Amino acid sequence: MNGYNWDAFFNYYLAENAPDILENMESDPEAGSYVAYFEDTEENEQKAKRFADIIISLIENEGIYKILQEKGAEIEWD
Question: What is the pLDDT of residues 8-36, one digit of tens each?
Fold first, then answer.
């Protein structure tokens, strides 16, 4: 997937599973990369750490593939 697809995927996934992480989160997808960032506060640092843990879990447990198979049609792809 390219950065735009990762952006669509994470927006969908977080809205369904951790909507608070999306609060104050900005993203900057490109064709070859995806970047998410927050304003530098202690609360946002905890959100960023949780988001990193979610990404690691999705990769290590192959959850991304399951979500794409089961919910891919619901995601607003660019």
Answer: 999 999 999 999 999 999 999 999 999 99
Q: Report residue 43 as tokens.
A: 């609360």
- The closest of 67, 69, 51, 62 to 12, measured between CA atoms, is 67
Alpha-carbon separation of residue 39 from 11, 27, 45, 49, 77 (angstroms): 18, 12, 9, 13, 26
How many angstroms separate the CA atoms of 27 and 3, rounded? 10
Structure-block tokens of residue 40: 């530098």
Q: How far apart are CA 55 and CA 58, in angstroms?
A: 5
Give dist(CA 64, CA 9) in Å, integer: 9
Q: What is the DSSP secondary structure assignment for residue 72, as one 8-state letter?
A: G
